Amino acid sequence: MEHIYHIRYEYNEKEKSLRQIAKETGHDRKTISKYVGQIDFNLPKPKLSSRKKKTDQYKRLVIQWLKEDEKAPRKQRHSAHRIYDRLAEEELKAGRQIQVCERTIRNLVKELKLLLGQNKYVYLPLLHPPGEAQVDFGHTNFYEKGILYEGCHLVLAMPHSDAKFTQLFKSANSQCLEQGLMDIFNCMGKVPKSIRFDNDSLIVKEIKSGGEREIRDSFRRFQCHFNFDSNFCNPAAGHEKGSVENGVGMLRRNLFVPVPEMDDLEEYNKELLEICKSRLDRKHYKLEIKVIDLFAEDKEHMKELPAYAYEACRYVVARTNEYGMARYMTNSYSTSGNLHKCEVVLKVGAHKLEILR
Questions:
Q1: How far apart are CA 350 and CA 170, in angstroms?
Q2: Is 169 in the same domain as 269?
Q3: Cα separations (Å) of 87 from 59, 75, 98, 106?
Q4: Is the model more confident about 301 or about 341?
Q5: Which of 2-6, 76-80, 127-131 has the lowest mean pLDDT?
Q6: Residue-wise pLDDT tens digits, 280-326
Q7: Are residues 235 and 282 in the same domain?
Q8: Is the distance from CB of 159 to CB of 301 less than 8 angstroms?
Q9: What residues contact residue 312 under an 8 Å CB cut-off, 6+ apart?
Q10: 76 Cβ contact partners less than 8 Å away, ≥ 6 residues apart
Q11: Residue range of the domain that includes 93
Protein backbone atom coordinates (compact mmCIF):
# COMPACT_ATOMS: atom_id res chain seq x y z
CA MET A 1 0.00 0.00 0.00
CA GLU A 2 2.90 2.38 0.61
CA HIS A 3 3.73 2.72 -3.07
CA ILE A 4 0.04 3.34 -3.86
CA TYR A 5 -0.09 6.07 -1.18
CA HIS A 6 3.09 7.60 -2.59
CA ILE A 7 1.73 7.63 -6.15
CA ARG A 8 -1.55 9.26 -5.06
CA TYR A 9 0.31 11.76 -2.85
CA GLU A 10 2.60 12.81 -5.70
CA TYR A 11 -0.41 13.23 -8.03
CA ASN A 12 -2.92 14.85 -5.67
CA GLU A 13 -0.69 16.93 -3.38
CA LYS A 14 2.32 17.73 -5.55
CA GLU A 15 0.26 17.87 -8.76
CA LYS A 16 2.78 15.86 -10.79
CA SER A 17 1.79 14.37 -14.12
CA LEU A 18 1.31 10.64 -14.71
CA ARG A 19 4.34 10.66 -16.99
CA GLN A 20 6.56 12.28 -14.36
CA ILE A 21 5.43 9.89 -11.61
CA ALA A 22 6.00 6.89 -13.88
CA LYS A 23 9.50 8.14 -14.66
CA GLU A 24 10.36 8.69 -10.97
CA THR A 25 8.88 5.47 -9.60
CA GLY A 26 9.56 3.08 -12.47
CA HIS A 27 5.92 1.94 -12.56
CA ASP A 28 4.00 1.57 -15.83
CA ARG A 29 1.74 4.51 -16.72
CA LYS A 30 -1.30 2.23 -16.79
CA THR A 31 -0.53 1.19 -13.21
CA ILE A 32 -0.11 4.82 -12.18
CA SER A 33 -3.43 5.71 -13.82
CA LYS A 34 -5.19 2.78 -12.13
CA TYR A 35 -4.07 3.82 -8.62
CA VAL A 36 -4.77 7.50 -9.19
CA GLY A 37 -8.31 6.75 -10.30
CA GLN A 38 -9.05 4.14 -7.65
CA ILE A 39 -11.74 5.28 -5.20
CA ASP A 40 -12.43 2.14 -3.13
CA PHE A 41 -9.66 0.84 -0.89
CA ASN A 42 -11.70 -1.49 1.27
CA LEU A 43 -10.10 -4.84 1.98
CA PRO A 44 -11.80 -7.73 0.18
CA LYS A 45 -13.59 -10.03 2.58
CA PRO A 46 -11.49 -13.18 3.07
CA LYS A 47 -13.03 -16.48 2.13
CA LEU A 48 -13.43 -18.89 5.02
CA SER A 49 -12.25 -22.43 4.68
CA SER A 50 -15.07 -24.82 3.83
CA ARG A 51 -13.14 -27.81 5.15
CA LYS A 52 -14.80 -29.47 8.10
CA LYS A 53 -12.95 -29.51 11.39
CA LYS A 54 -12.88 -32.37 13.86
CA THR A 55 -14.37 -30.03 16.46
CA ASP A 56 -17.47 -29.25 14.36
CA GLN A 57 -19.26 -32.28 15.84
CA TYR A 58 -18.86 -30.81 19.36
CA LYS A 59 -19.74 -27.16 18.67
CA ARG A 60 -23.48 -27.37 19.31
CA LEU A 61 -23.05 -29.14 22.66
CA VAL A 62 -20.28 -26.80 23.84
CA ILE A 63 -22.38 -23.73 22.91
CA GLN A 64 -25.27 -25.19 24.92
CA TRP A 65 -23.07 -25.64 28.01
CA LEU A 66 -21.59 -22.13 27.69
CA LYS A 67 -25.05 -20.56 27.45
CA GLU A 68 -26.18 -22.49 30.53
CA ASP A 69 -23.12 -21.11 32.34
CA GLU A 70 -24.51 -17.60 31.98
CA LYS A 71 -27.18 -18.53 34.55
CA ALA A 72 -24.75 -20.29 36.91
CA PRO A 73 -22.59 -18.70 39.66
CA ARG A 74 -19.28 -17.39 38.31
CA LYS A 75 -17.24 -19.94 40.26
CA GLN A 76 -19.36 -22.82 39.05
CA ARG A 77 -18.98 -22.39 35.32
CA HIS A 78 -17.23 -24.70 32.88
CA SER A 79 -13.53 -24.40 32.43
CA ALA A 80 -12.06 -25.59 29.12
CA HIS A 81 -10.64 -28.60 30.96
CA ARG A 82 -14.04 -29.51 32.39
CA ILE A 83 -15.64 -29.22 28.93
CA TYR A 84 -13.02 -31.61 27.53
CA ASP A 85 -13.72 -34.11 30.33
CA ARG A 86 -17.48 -33.92 29.74
CA LEU A 87 -17.07 -34.42 26.00
CA ALA A 88 -14.84 -37.43 26.65
CA GLU A 89 -17.51 -38.84 28.99
CA GLU A 90 -20.24 -38.31 26.35
CA GLU A 91 -18.15 -40.13 23.76
CA LEU A 92 -17.54 -43.05 26.12
CA LYS A 93 -21.30 -43.36 26.74
CA ALA A 94 -21.74 -43.68 22.97
CA GLY A 95 -18.98 -46.30 22.82
CA ARG A 96 -16.47 -44.02 21.11
CA GLN A 97 -13.18 -42.31 21.92
CA ILE A 98 -12.91 -38.55 21.72
CA GLN A 99 -11.24 -37.62 18.44
CA VAL A 100 -9.35 -34.49 19.51
CA CYS A 101 -6.83 -33.50 22.18
CA GLU A 102 -7.53 -31.14 25.09
CA ARG A 103 -5.57 -28.29 23.50
CA THR A 104 -7.90 -28.37 20.48
CA ILE A 105 -10.95 -28.18 22.74
CA ARG A 106 -9.38 -25.27 24.64
CA ASN A 107 -9.01 -23.38 21.36
CA LEU A 108 -12.62 -24.20 20.45
CA VAL A 109 -13.89 -22.91 23.81
CA LYS A 110 -11.91 -19.68 23.40
CA GLU A 111 -13.34 -19.20 19.89
CA LEU A 112 -16.92 -19.84 21.01
CA LYS A 113 -16.64 -17.55 24.04
CA LEU A 114 -15.59 -14.73 21.72
CA LEU A 115 -18.50 -15.57 19.44
CA LEU A 116 -20.94 -15.48 22.37
CA GLY A 117 -19.45 -12.31 23.78
CA GLN A 118 -18.38 -13.99 27.02
CA ASN A 119 -14.81 -12.69 26.83
CA LYS A 120 -15.46 -9.06 27.81
CA TYR A 121 -11.86 -7.86 27.56
CA VAL A 122 -9.40 -8.32 24.77
CA TYR A 123 -5.82 -7.40 25.57
CA LEU A 124 -3.57 -6.20 22.80
CA PRO A 125 0.22 -6.10 23.09
CA LEU A 126 1.77 -2.65 23.03
CA LEU A 127 3.86 -2.15 19.92
CA HIS A 128 6.80 0.24 19.98
CA PRO A 129 7.68 1.39 16.45
CA PRO A 130 11.12 3.00 16.07
CA GLY A 131 11.22 6.77 16.31
CA GLU A 132 8.41 7.14 18.86
CA ALA A 133 8.93 8.51 22.40
CA GLN A 134 7.21 8.80 25.78
CA VAL A 135 7.63 11.70 28.23
CA ASP A 136 6.89 12.20 31.93
CA PHE A 137 8.01 14.09 35.04
CA GLY A 138 9.15 12.58 38.36
CA HIS A 139 9.77 14.19 41.75
CA THR A 140 13.43 14.67 42.78
CA ASN A 141 15.13 16.69 45.51
CA PHE A 142 18.51 18.32 44.94
CA TYR A 143 20.82 21.02 46.32
CA GLU A 144 22.00 24.00 44.28
CA LYS A 145 24.55 26.22 46.03
CA GLY A 146 23.55 24.60 49.32
CA ILE A 147 19.83 25.35 48.92
CA LEU A 148 17.45 22.38 48.94
CA TYR A 149 14.89 22.31 46.11
CA GLU A 150 11.96 19.93 45.90
CA GLY A 151 12.27 19.68 42.16
CA CYS A 152 11.57 17.20 39.42
CA HIS A 153 13.28 15.40 36.57
CA LEU A 154 11.91 15.22 33.04
CA VAL A 155 12.39 11.86 31.32
CA LEU A 156 12.14 11.07 27.62
CA ALA A 157 12.15 7.36 26.78
CA MET A 158 12.40 5.67 23.39
CA PRO A 159 10.54 2.36 23.98
CA HIS A 160 11.86 0.68 20.82
CA SER A 161 15.49 0.94 21.91
CA ASP A 162 15.04 1.57 25.67
CA ALA A 163 17.15 4.73 25.34
CA LYS A 164 16.35 7.21 28.12
CA PHE A 165 17.32 10.85 28.68
CA THR A 166 16.64 13.11 31.64
CA GLN A 167 16.94 16.74 32.75
CA LEU A 168 16.56 18.21 36.25
CA PHE A 169 14.45 21.29 37.09
CA LYS A 170 13.23 23.24 40.09
CA SER A 171 9.60 22.89 39.03
CA ALA A 172 7.40 21.21 36.42
CA ASN A 173 6.02 24.10 34.36
CA SER A 174 5.64 24.58 30.61
CA GLN A 175 9.00 26.33 30.26
CA CYS A 176 10.76 23.41 31.99
CA LEU A 177 8.94 20.90 29.80
CA GLU A 178 9.88 22.73 26.61
CA GLN A 179 13.46 23.47 27.69
CA GLY A 180 14.04 19.88 28.77
CA LEU A 181 12.63 18.43 25.54
CA MET A 182 14.58 20.92 23.44
CA ASP A 183 17.88 20.09 25.18
CA ILE A 184 17.23 16.35 24.81
CA PHE A 185 16.37 16.79 21.11
CA ASN A 186 19.64 18.66 20.59
CA CYS A 187 21.53 15.92 22.44
CA MET A 188 19.97 13.20 20.27
CA GLY A 189 20.46 15.21 17.10
CA LYS A 190 16.93 14.35 16.00
CA VAL A 191 13.28 14.87 17.01
CA PRO A 192 10.96 11.90 17.71
CA LYS A 193 8.25 11.56 15.08
CA SER A 194 5.63 11.05 17.79
CA ILE A 195 5.57 11.59 21.57
CA ARG A 196 3.10 10.11 24.06
CA PHE A 197 2.15 12.17 27.12
CA ASP A 198 -0.30 11.79 29.97
CA ASN A 199 -3.06 14.38 30.31
CA ASP A 200 -0.98 16.91 32.24
CA SER A 201 -2.60 20.33 32.55
CA LEU A 202 0.64 21.84 31.19
CA ILE A 203 -0.35 20.43 27.80
CA VAL A 204 -4.03 19.47 27.88
CA LYS A 205 -6.44 22.28 28.60
CA GLU A 206 -9.55 20.08 28.53
CA ILE A 207 -10.62 16.53 27.69
CA LYS A 208 -13.81 16.83 25.72
CA SER A 209 -16.56 14.29 25.21
CA GLY A 210 -15.39 11.53 22.91
CA GLY A 211 -11.82 11.78 24.20
CA GLU A 212 -10.76 14.76 22.06
CA ARG A 213 -8.13 16.96 23.74
CA GLU A 214 -8.01 20.75 23.68
CA ILE A 215 -4.29 21.50 23.63
CA ARG A 216 -2.80 24.68 25.08
CA ASP A 217 -1.52 27.19 22.56
CA SER A 218 1.95 27.34 24.11
CA PHE A 219 2.48 23.62 23.61
CA ARG A 220 1.02 23.67 20.08
CA ARG A 221 3.51 26.40 19.19
CA PHE A 222 6.38 24.28 20.51
CA GLN A 223 5.02 21.22 18.70
CA CYS A 224 4.69 23.05 15.39
CA HIS A 225 8.25 24.36 15.65
CA PHE A 226 9.74 20.88 16.16
CA ASN A 227 7.20 19.16 13.88
CA PHE A 228 6.36 16.08 15.98
CA ASP A 229 3.03 14.37 16.49
CA SER A 230 1.54 13.94 19.96
CA ASN A 231 -0.81 11.38 21.46
CA PHE A 232 -2.17 10.96 24.95
CA CYS A 233 -2.91 8.19 27.42
CA ASN A 234 -6.43 7.45 28.50
CA PRO A 235 -7.25 9.12 31.86
CA ALA A 236 -5.77 7.20 34.83
CA ALA A 237 -3.94 4.84 32.47
CA GLY A 238 -0.26 5.52 33.08
CA HIS A 239 0.56 1.93 32.08
CA GLU A 240 -0.01 3.01 28.49
CA LYS A 241 3.41 4.69 28.67
CA GLY A 242 5.08 2.06 30.83
CA SER A 243 8.54 2.60 29.34
CA VAL A 244 8.87 6.15 30.66
CA GLU A 245 7.03 5.28 33.91
CA ASN A 246 9.73 2.69 34.62
CA GLY A 247 12.41 5.08 33.42
CA VAL A 248 11.39 7.79 35.90
CA GLY A 249 12.04 5.50 38.86
CA MET A 250 15.09 3.80 37.38
CA LEU A 251 16.89 7.07 36.59
CA ARG A 252 16.03 8.49 40.00
CA ARG A 253 17.56 5.46 41.74
CA ASN A 254 20.65 5.40 39.52
CA LEU A 255 21.43 9.08 38.96
CA PHE A 256 19.93 10.96 41.90
CA VAL A 257 20.99 8.81 44.87
CA PRO A 258 22.47 10.22 47.05
CA VAL A 259 20.67 13.56 46.73
CA PRO A 260 22.71 15.48 44.11
CA GLU A 261 24.51 18.72 44.93
CA MET A 262 25.71 21.24 42.37
CA ASP A 263 26.74 24.88 41.97
CA ASP A 264 24.97 25.42 38.65
CA LEU A 265 21.90 23.48 37.55
CA GLU A 266 22.32 24.25 33.84
CA GLU A 267 25.87 22.89 33.83
CA TYR A 268 24.71 19.85 35.80
CA ASN A 269 22.04 19.16 33.15
CA LYS A 270 24.70 19.18 30.42
CA GLU A 271 26.59 16.53 32.38
CA LEU A 272 23.38 14.53 32.80
CA LEU A 273 22.93 14.33 29.03
CA GLU A 274 26.48 13.00 28.63
CA ILE A 275 25.78 10.37 31.28
CA CYS A 276 22.59 9.36 29.46
CA LYS A 277 24.53 9.02 26.21
CA SER A 278 27.12 6.80 27.91
CA ARG A 279 24.32 4.55 29.23
CA LEU A 280 23.37 3.67 25.64
CA ASP A 281 26.37 1.35 25.52
CA ARG A 282 24.58 -1.47 27.33
CA LYS A 283 22.53 -4.48 26.29
CA HIS A 284 18.76 -4.19 25.90
CA TYR A 285 16.92 -5.63 28.91
CA LYS A 286 15.20 -8.25 26.73
CA LEU A 287 17.15 -8.48 23.50
CA GLU A 288 20.77 -9.52 23.12
CA ILE A 289 21.43 -6.27 21.28
CA LYS A 290 23.10 -3.08 22.44
CA VAL A 291 20.77 -0.17 23.10
CA ILE A 292 22.95 2.11 20.98
CA ASP A 293 22.34 -0.09 17.92
CA LEU A 294 18.57 -0.06 18.48
CA PHE A 295 18.75 3.69 19.06
CA ALA A 296 20.34 4.02 15.61
CA GLU A 297 17.15 2.44 14.22
CA ASP A 298 15.14 4.96 16.22
CA LYS A 299 17.07 7.84 14.69
CA GLU A 300 16.46 6.59 11.16
CA HIS A 301 12.73 7.15 11.75
CA MET A 302 13.06 10.46 13.60
CA LYS A 303 12.77 13.97 12.19
CA GLU A 304 15.46 16.58 11.60
CA LEU A 305 15.99 19.44 14.02
CA PRO A 306 14.43 22.75 12.92
CA ALA A 307 16.60 25.33 11.19
CA TYR A 308 15.74 28.03 13.76
CA ALA A 309 16.45 27.96 17.49
CA TYR A 310 13.47 28.00 19.85
CA GLU A 311 13.16 30.05 23.04
CA ALA A 312 11.37 28.13 25.78
CA CYS A 313 9.98 31.11 27.66
CA ARG A 314 6.88 33.14 28.41
CA TYR A 315 6.53 36.91 28.59
CA VAL A 316 4.77 38.57 31.51
CA VAL A 317 4.00 42.26 31.91
CA ALA A 318 4.62 43.42 35.50
CA ARG A 319 4.58 46.77 37.27
CA THR A 320 7.46 47.85 39.49
CA ASN A 321 6.92 49.41 42.89
CA GLU A 322 8.50 52.56 44.31
CA TYR A 323 11.76 50.65 44.91
CA GLY A 324 11.98 49.45 41.31
CA MET A 325 11.08 45.86 42.30
CA ALA A 326 9.01 43.72 39.92
CA ARG A 327 7.04 40.86 41.45
CA TYR A 328 6.50 37.50 39.76
CA MET A 329 4.85 34.57 41.51
CA THR A 330 6.20 34.69 45.10
CA ASN A 331 9.48 36.52 44.34
CA SER A 332 10.49 40.14 43.80
CA TYR A 333 13.20 41.11 41.30
CA SER A 334 15.34 44.24 41.18
CA THR A 335 15.35 46.47 38.10
CA SER A 336 17.31 49.55 37.11
CA GLY A 337 16.97 52.47 39.51
CA ASN A 338 15.02 54.56 37.00
CA LEU A 339 12.40 51.85 36.48
CA HIS A 340 10.13 52.55 39.39
CA LYS A 341 6.33 52.55 39.24
CA CYS A 342 6.32 51.58 35.59
CA GLU A 343 5.59 48.54 33.47
CA VAL A 344 8.34 46.12 32.48
CA VAL A 345 8.37 42.86 30.53
CA LEU A 346 9.57 39.73 32.29
CA LYS A 347 11.05 36.97 30.12
CA VAL A 348 10.52 33.81 32.18
CA GLY A 349 12.56 30.75 31.24
CA ALA A 350 13.16 27.36 32.82
CA HIS A 351 16.32 28.47 34.66
CA LYS A 352 16.29 32.25 34.75
CA LEU A 353 14.14 35.37 34.59
CA GLU A 354 15.19 38.40 32.54
CA ILE A 355 13.74 41.89 32.91
CA LEU A 356 13.15 43.65 29.58
CA ARG A 357 12.08 47.26 29.12
A1: 8
A2: yes
A3: 11, 20, 7, 12
A4: 301
A5: 2-6
A6: 999 888 888 899 999 999 999 999 999 888 988 988 888 888 888 88
A7: yes
A8: no
A9: 175, 178, 179, 182, 222, 349, 350
A10: none
A11: 56-116
